[in-house]
Amino acid sequence: MPTLHDPIFRSLSDPTRRALFERLCLEGEQTVAALTEQAGISQPAVSKHLRILKEAGLVSGRQAGRQTRYTARAEALAPLVGWTRAMSGFWDAKLDGLEDLLKRMDQ
Fold first, then answer.
1. What value, to the nearest 5°, has the Cα angle with vertex 76 and ends 73 and 80?
2. pLDDT tens, residue by residue, 15-39
3. C-alpha 48: how far from its chain's center?
4. What does the alpha-carbon distance between residue 18 and residue 49 come to, in Å, rounded to a whole number?
5. Which of 11, 18, 76, 104 is placed for a possible disulfide with 57 were both Cys, Cβ 3.0 to 4.6 Å?
6. Cα–Cα–Cα angle for 74, 11, 20, nearest 5°?
7. pLDDT 10s digits, 49-66
8. Is the pTM of this model over 0.85?
9. C-alpha span between 58 and 75 (Å, rounded)
């Protein structure tokens, strides 16, 4: 059963895409050429990864002459924040229950 945040999880599951996204978050807007310099992969591969990140809504691109400049859209992570909170609450409750059970077993 697909969810709205599945494309985000899929796109960030790849370490190269995560690194590109993190770099854009930390360093700001970058050209494909600048991203390729430090990525350790070819320009076409960087462009493919950026396309996947863009389709997931994690980056946006704008034309600047002949170059495309990419920017991270950190707000696109918002669905994951809600999911993480829900999962955290779930596990907190489960671990609290386990703790209670272990205390009863010790008595």
1. 140
2. 999 999 999 999 999 999 999 998 8
3. 16
4. 10
5. 76
6. 60
7. 999 999 999 999 999 889
8. no
9. 8
